[in-house]
Amino acid sequence: VRVPDNAGNYAEQSGTVKIDKIDPVINTVTQNTDDWTNADVTLTINATDEGGSGLSVYEYQDGETWTALTGNTDVAASNGDYKFRVNDLAGNVSAEFTHTVTNIDKEAPVIDSITWNHAWTDSSVTVKVSAYDTLSGLNSTEYRYKDKDATDWGVWKTFTDTFKIENNGSF
Questions:
Q1: pLDDT single digits (tens) 31-65
Q2: What's the rounded Cα separation, in Å, for the pair 29 and 42?
Q3: Rounded CA gap, 116 and 77, in Å?
Q4: Cα 68 vs. chain centroid, distance in angstroms?
Q5: Is 32 exposed, middle or buried (0-12, 13-18, 19+ CB in 10 A)?
Q6: Which end of the chain, N or C, is surrounded by fewer C-beta atoms within 10 Å?
Q7: With 0-12 CB in 10 A as exposed, 13-18 as middle and 19+ as buried, what is 109?
Q8: pLDDT tens-digit profile of 124-164?
Q9: How many secondary structure helices (H) and strands (E) does the chain include?
Q10: CA 61 to CA 83: how far, in whole Å?
Q11: Taking the CB of residue 99, how many other CB atoms lie within 10 A of it?
């Protein structure tokens, strides 16, 4: 910009214009673990801003409301869809990005039944166990045994469907 006066003097000054018309993009949302877990999962939003103004605010959708995050991470406490968007410094907003969490299991397995002969017998006793887990599935089925005269429980032993007890005691 130049401004002359009537005496022929000039004042000049320049400035820089910054225009960003490009929406930022969420490239991925990553989890701190993809393995089954009984804990919350940390989600990290990975975004870029091709327009150059820089990323400013990461947001998650809570019902119908968009809420600002502190930084680019969120915590998933349960399985489900998590929706995110990011804003840049020019006011452009990314498209909504949905990430689905499917690896959280905070529910204990269910023991359907434990059956065995409750009567006195002169032979070993077979114990049958039926159990299930509707989310992550059963990792194993285990038992431990304490002989009637013992003070400590034995070590956990893995079995499939049934196990045998050879002496009086508890399992």
A1: 999 999 999 999 999 999 999 999 999 999 988 99
A2: 10
A3: 39
A4: 19
A5: middle
A6: N
A7: middle
A8: 999 999 999 999 999 999 999 998 888 899 999 999 999 99
A9: 0, 16
A10: 5
A11: 18
